[in-house]
Amino acid sequence: MPTSILIIDDSDNIRSSIVATLREVALFEQYIEAKDGIDGLKSLLDNRVDLIICDLEMPRMDGFKFLSMLSGREELKDIPVIMLTGKEDRQSKIKGLERGAVDYVTKPFDAGELVARVKVQLKIKALQDELRKSNELLLELSNTDHLTRLYNRRHLMETLDREFKRALREGGFFSMIMLDIDHFKKVNDTYGHQEGDAVLVAVANVVRRELRPYDYAARYGGEEFALLLPATNLAGSMQAAERVRKGVESMTFADKLQNLVVTVSLGIATYPSSQVYCIDALITEADDALYRAKANGRNRIESMIGAT
Known about the structure:
Layout: E1 4-8, H1 12-24, E2 30-34, H2 37-46, E3 51-55, H3 63-71, E4 81-85, H4 90-98, E5 103-106, H5 111-143, H6 153-170, E6 174-181, H7 184-191, H8 193-210, E7 216-221, E8 224-230, H9 234-249, E9 264-271, H10 279-295, E10 301-303
Parallel strand pairs: 1-2, 1-3, 3-4, 4-5, 9-10
Antiparallel strand pairs: 6-8, 6-9, 7-8
Helix pairs in contact: 2-3, 7-8, 8-9
């Protein structure tokens, strides 16, 4: 990734001097300049930067205010800021560090010191970025079913708890769809577990494609999937379930599975309803509806009794 730096100072000469110093050691590919904190914030809205060098005393918006504004924005607060000040007094430096600066350089700056401090902060930021990516990957792995790449059951239950509470609090609709692949044991027995896994992945892809970006889909266990549809009444969830059912039925396979037709049965439960007063009741009603769909011939959708 190309590295870039934002230099904020009301002195053209100081900005030019900083740019010239850093260009000599080729630390950055892009140099962005701003005359005060306001211009600096505007530049950050249009550019991704790896480091900021910011003067403390500037017109319109000084460095202290700039640091406070930066820390209040989620997308900007992790950018390291080295403050630049002509003041020798200890309190100004402490105040800047307390506002979020990671280091300081005193004007007139020594070129070697500036380069050394910049290198240290770039190295720290690189390590932090790597750690952040690793943590994000670990979180994704802990929440995801390794085969289908849908959410796993644990994450589903956490999401279900959060979304059901939201529906209770806001008084909106909330639906759950339980989906089961029809005669899946026969697929495994006939073609083998490796081909059975391919069917699971294909069904998961259809589910992912047919749901909205803010819906949730998880592998509930074996060949069973659970779909959570926030802000969705029975009619809306029936439409979503039908899209999934048709999508699965129209799947085609190659090689050993080229003659296989896969179907699914789906059961729907919706809140608010007199039968659904908690999460366990929602799951039970969706399970019961799924059981009726399978008992009534499979490749069909059933909703909870009494749902409207």
